[in-house]
Design goal:
- This protein is an alpha+beta fold and 231 residues long.
- It has 2 domains: 4-146, no CATH class; 151-229, 2-Layer Sandwich (Alpha-Beta Plaits), CATH 3.30.70.
- 57% of the residues lie in helices and 20% in strands.
- It contains 7 helices and 6 strands; from the N terminus they run H-H-H-E-E-H-H-E-H-E-E-H-E.
- The strands form 2 sheets. Strands 4-5-3-6 form a 4-stranded antiparallel beta sheet, with helices on one face. It has a two-stranded antiparallel sheet with strand order 1-2.
- Helix 1 (4-27) runs antiparallel to helix 4, helix 2 packs parallel to helix 4 (105-123) and helix 3 packs antiparallel against helix 4 (105-123).
- The chain is elongated.
């Protein structure tokens, strides 16, 4: 039977694992931070321990009642399977799709993985839980610092003077050596006036910074709206 000492140890281990992963998400101001990751991991641990307890009781019943040995069954993966599939709904809630931009995928993946680590801790597989935590943290925090990836975000710009503003924007991106991966142009009518909207998918490298881009573009007189979207 699971005693109080084992229950506390598994819960504390789950909280520490989730706290490490959640801290990285909280630090980057993502939709799910420390508390959300800890709740997911602790919830998965509780369910895993319930499953362990059910299996232990089923085995004890079969051992103590010989006539029930052939009919008593316990599937140790039944509740675990429900956690793995059910956590997907919570992860989906952190994913935001805005036109051609998708954000929240990394946070959704970290929540799903955190549930798996909680199951490992709850089932008593401490080596899997600890090493798995290190692997997840490495994927979230260390890999991005070792391997350089372009910082891809969506930039929305609204302006009233089509030809002049478009020409200024094109000159700016070219002179700043900013890579444009995709571009979408649309027109809306507001108060009887045409408002042009261009959505850029930009990829920045090295010292390039989105804050500087927004600051530079805000000085252009024809632009009435600027917004950066991206994880």
């Amino acid at each position: 039977m699971l005693d109080i000492k084992h229950i506390f140890f598994r819960m504390i281990l789950a909280a520490l694992i989730a706290g490490i992963i959640g801290y990285e998400r909280e630090y980057k101001n993502r939709p799910a931070g420390i508390r959300t990751h800890m709740l997911v991991c602790l919830g998965a641990t509780i369910i895993a321990m319930i499953q362990v307890q059910i299996s232990i009781e089923a085995l004890e019943l079969a051992k103590n009642s010989a006539h029930l040995g052939s009919v008593v069954r316990s599937d140790p993966a039944r509740l675990i399977a429900q956690v793995i599939s059910g956590i997907g709904f919570l992860g989906a809630g952190t994913i935001i799709v805005h036109k051609s931009s998708v954000t929240g995928l990394t946070t959704a993946a970290s929540l799903w993985t955190c549930a798996g680590l909680g199951l490992a801790a709850g089932m008593g597989y401490y080596n899997i839980a600890v090493i798995g935590c290190f692997g997840v943290f490495s994927a979230l925090f260390i890999v991005k610092r070792v391997i350089s990836f372009p910082d891809v975000k969506t930039l929305e710009i609204e302006y009233s003077n089509e030809n002049k503003t478009k020409e200024i924007l094109n000159d700016y991106f070219y002179s700043a050596n900013i890579q444009i991966r995709d571009k979408n142009i649309s027109v809306e009518i507001k108060d009887g006036k045409k408002i042009y909207k261009t959505t850029y998918i930009l990829a920045l490298k090295g010292e390039q910074c989105y804050a500087n881009i927004v600051e530079d573009l805000a000085k252009i007189s024809g632009i009435t709206y600027l917004k950066i979207i991206g994880e």
